[in-house]
Structures are given as structure tokens and as C-alpha cells.
Design a protein that fits this description.
Blueprint lengths: L1 H18 L3 E5 L4 H13 L4 E5 L6 H13 L3 E4 L3 H10 L9 H5 L1 H17 L1 E3 L5 H6 L20 H10 L4 H5 L12 H5 L3 H11 L9 H14 L14
Parallel strand pairs: 1-2, 1-4, 2-3
Helix pairs in contact: 1-2, 2-8
Amino acid sequence: MKEIIGSIQTFMANALKDSGSNGFVLGMSGGIDSSVAAVLAKQVAPSSTLGLILPCESNLKDREDALLVAENFDIETIVIDIKDFYKSILRLMEHDNVPENKLTANNLKPRLRMIVLYYWANRRRYLVIGTGNKVELQLGYYTKYGDGGCDIMPLGDLYKSEVYAIAKELDIPKSIIEKQPSAGLWHGQTDEGEIGLNYADMEHALKYLNKERADKPSDMILDRIHDLIKRNGHKAHMPKIAYVNL
């Protein structure tokens, strides 16, 4: 893991140098991905890493876990509750009689968080770190222009199991390593529950599809993975341009 950590840190340091930026800013959710990303950022930019804790009808334990990481690794943090911001936007959108869709409403949360992140990035001339891992990116399990909107993704080539291994290497608190992965969009929501597969099965299937020496998973798992990749494929590309020959 030390070699992988070193490679990621070199990538992050080069991103700062190439962009002429002063440091990093990221959202700290109290989850394992953002905790690992925050600690790596702190090690690369010790005096210029900012963690934003942006609760929005969130579980109090998530805020406590984010603050625990910040305290353990001396990461500068700002807590901004965006609940009122979120509720105001929802009220402005009430212009038809279509019932509110839970996912549509909750996808506003990561998009509003990204607005706040880029405000602070512009204010301090920092790069915004995305905390998505390889499984999430390949399946499109993120909000377009929300948590998928960022400048760099240090964990984007790591499977979830590798993120866990790095977390242990970095001494991330045990309570965070052992908690259920969740995007925190609503109470009781978990990644595995929403997707319908556990991370071990998702990782196994993706390794098989990526031709990484994995046995063929069950047809049920492969069908679900193919469906997610197809349905969310638009997230992985820049908007299509209509090229006109005049």
C-alpha cells in the first residue's frame, strides 16, 4: 500500500504544481472515502488543506466522524449547515403538480455542496478533490455535477477494498472503517442497499469485466452491473457537441 499511497500523493502534488493552485478543498462526510482523501491531501499540502463539513438533514454521527478525522490529523475544517439553502431551493421549484421524487430532491444536496466547495476553492485558489472510488465511477454511482464535479479524483483508480487497505495504513479511526458506506442522501440510505449488491460482488464483477483475473460472476450480478453501466454511462463523458460542417 505504501507504493500506491506514494503514487497518489505524487499525482496530487503534481496537480497543484501544474495548476498553480495553493492547496486542496474537499467535502468531509465522515465516510471512508472522504476521510482517506482528506488525510492524503493533508500530507501533500499540510498548511493548505480545507475540509468542509456540509450537513443537510444529515446523521449527526457523520458530522462527528468527520470532525474526529479532522482532529486526529489536524485538518482545518469549516462546518456549514446547508439545510436552509436546500429547503429554499425546493420551495422555489414548486411550480407544477408533479409529486416530489425522493431521489430528484436528494440529488440537490451534493449539487449544493459542490457550489459551496467551489466557492471556497475560488476564494483560496484551491483544487476541489473528488472522493469517488473506482467502483462508484465505473458504475456511475454518483450525482452528475454533484459529487462527480471536481478537479481531481485521487481515489478514482482504487477499488473499495483498496480504499479500506489504505485507510488502515493511514490509521483512519476504526469507527469509520467499520461503518456502512452511505452517500448520506437520506436517513437509513446505504450504498449497497440502493444498488442492490454488496461491494465485494460489485468489485468482483468489475474486475471480471476489466479482465483482471476474476472468475465469471453470476448472471444476476452481471446483468445488474451492465444495467448500471449502461444507464449511467452519460455521466462519464463530457456533453456531446454538435459539430457543424459549413
